[in-house]
Amino acid sequence: MPRAVYSAAIQMNPESQAGMLHTPGTCPLGRRSFVGYLAGLLACPSASVADNPTAYPTEVAGIRLPVTPLCMKSYELCRSAAPAFLVNHSLRTYVFGALYVSHKGQRFDAETAFVAAMLHDIGLLKEFSTPQTPFEIDGANRAESLVRESGGAPVEANKVWQAIALHDTRDPIPQHQSPEATLVAEGAGADVGGPEENIISAATVRSVVAALPRLQFKERFIALLTDHCVRKPGAQRATWLEGFCRVHSTVPASATEQAILAAPFDE
Known about the structure:
Layout: E1 5-6, H1 34-42, E2 59-60, E3 63-64, H2 69-81, H3 84-103, E4 108-109, H4 110-119, H5 135-149, H6 154-165, H7 172-175, H8 179-193, H9 202-211, H10 217-231, H11 242-248, H12 255-261
Antiparallel strand pairs: 1-4, 2-3
């Protein structure tokens, strides 16, 4: 299948059919300790249960979602390991990001952007986590490997890595990398904190959420971040998540602080 490249104009496809979507599962929490509470949230049915569909929608809010072998592999990798709320977050990230980049009049490679959006948070999952590396890098490394294993070009693998590694840095950084990096950063930011209404209207947001339900995203995403910080205190230094981890875990003194204090000077 030829690679899809999107122009500034949002691509419309009135004949496409949206696939079946993930639906909320029930996850009774009861009265538990805080750790048990987090475990209850994270144990909610994942997107890999047998009753869930195997395909994502081909169009949401006027944005076509690319369907290439690599896109399907990235979707299945996420779907096989991630809870349903995180799968839908990843899909919404692509849609919101595509709307943003299109509004800015930028062209982007749809396959590269979709793979990066689909896998931008998998580093938060234990399956893809290393002991000390920030989740952004863990996810970027696995996504890069997927592209290479699938025969993708080194330049595409690198763009996917950059888009994931930089997705939660300050806007000018991903914007100076590529439109695909901008798409993932702006899409993820819009889904977590809310989109700019002058770029993505409230009606469009409702359309996206109706197609890709949030599934208690706020509460469950906070629980996932907390679990990550508890497992890997100190791994998120100098990242977007550092402050969150300092609140929700015991973060060791920074290497920078230790190096300054250990300098061989009498003061």
